[in-house]
Specification:
Layout lengths: L2 E2 L9 H8 L3 E7 H4 L8 E15 L31 E6 L3 E7 L7 E12 L1 H8 L10 H8 L20 E7 L7
Antiparallel strand pairs: 1-7, 2-3, 2-7, 3-6, 4-5, 5-6
Helix pairs in contact: 3-4
Length: 185
């Protein structure tokens, strides 16, 4: 049975939180005019992504050696400010200047951490995902850039969106739903 994630669910270090996100569902509702230049109409489109692959990133303050792959390894900056906020916000950043990638912010107060959503299976909104990516089947959300593309979340417009409350940010709403923890990872 799925239930809405809470900030407490995500308050652990990224290595603790990451396995909990496998099988979880990210639900994103967007107005197409909020994500596509030249799109018309204000109807909402919802996609639901069952998370199948994740990557944990620890920032400064999580131990003696910060993760060299983490955007927060050197401390807070304008770019990584979301990672230093409350758990449950989504850190949306631009990779290689073209791909919007999505991380779930996690970690105890005073630390920065995130879990990169690397791949997912679409359970709702397949037609919208195909229109956004011009791919189909298992390629739709395979890889963090493709996942970001089909979710409809864009950098910088949706960086910091709250996936716990589902509050709207720039024409989008996101919710994170957790399932039963996996027996083994």
């Amino acid at each position: 049975m799925m239930r809405r994630a809470t900030r407490a669910d995500l308050a652990g270090l990224p290595l603790e939180v990451a396995p909990r996100l496998l099988g979880a569902e990210l639900r994103v509702a967007t107005r197409e005019d909020a994500i596509s230049e030249g799109a018309h109409g204000a109807g909402e489109t919802e996609v639901r992504l069952r998370i199948t692959e994740v990557e944990a990133y620890h920032g400064k303050g999580t131990g003696p050696l910060p993760d060299p792959g983490s955007h927060a390894r050197m401390g807070p900056t304008a770019r990584n400010a979301t990672m230093w906020g409350e758990p449950g916000h989504l850190y949306v950043y631009l990779s290689h200047g073209i791909h919007s990638c999505v991380n779930v912010v996690c970690g105890p107060d005073g630390t920065a951490g995130g879990v990169l959503l690397r791949a997912a299976e679409l359970t709702t909104g397949v037609d919208a995902a195909i229109a956004r990516s011009r791919r189909s089947g298992r390629d739709l959300a395979r890889g963090p850039g493709r996942l970001g593309q089909v979710s409809g979340l864009r950098y910088p417009t949706h960086d910091g969106i709250d996936a716990i409350t589902g509050a709207e940010l720039s024409g989008a709403r996101a919710e994170l739903w957790l399932g039963e923890p996996l027996a083994e990872v």
